[in-house]
Amino acid sequence: MIRDHARATLAFQHVLAIKEERDDGFQKKYRSICLKLPTLVHTQGLAPALHFLTARGDSGQWAILPQLCEQLEAAGLVTPARGDRTRHLLEQVRAADLATLQALTRETQRVLTWYKRFVQAELREPDDDAAPGGPA
After folding, report:
1. pLDDT in tens, the chain (136 residues)
2. Which of 9, 57, 73, 123 is the most buried (most CB within 10 A)?
């Protein structure tokens, strides 16, 4: 399977699980972080951005962390987690050398592109239809 297709497939499964299993408030917070996280990683760096999420104290925003860990495991950049994926991801990012951190950041940005696209499509806000180019 092409790597980008694998990223997209897993991201779509994650977003659909949030859509089907979580309430609207959780979905809204998850959507918000999926839309903002790519910029946060770009401007602040991977480790600070991920640790910022854990400091926020909101499970709707934390939900992306174990999903990112699963994606990075699939890419072979993070060792498979035994237990808490969020903690494992944070430890792996903190312990990474420069080359590994750069690879983790690039892969995270590629993955987050898919999450952003899918939350825009699947977890639409009511006012999204009023946006230019939306259904009339």
Report:
1. 699 999 999 999 999 999 998 888 899 999 999 999 999 999 999 999 999 888 876 777 889 999 999 999 999 999 998 889 989 999 999 999 999 999 999 999 999 999 999 999 999 876 655 444 555 4
2. 123
Length of the chain: 136
The Cα 82–Cα 103 span in angstroms is: 22
CA distance 9 to 33: 20
Task: Write out the two tokens for 111.
Answer: 């993955």
Find out if CATH 1.10.760.10 is the number for domain 3-124. no
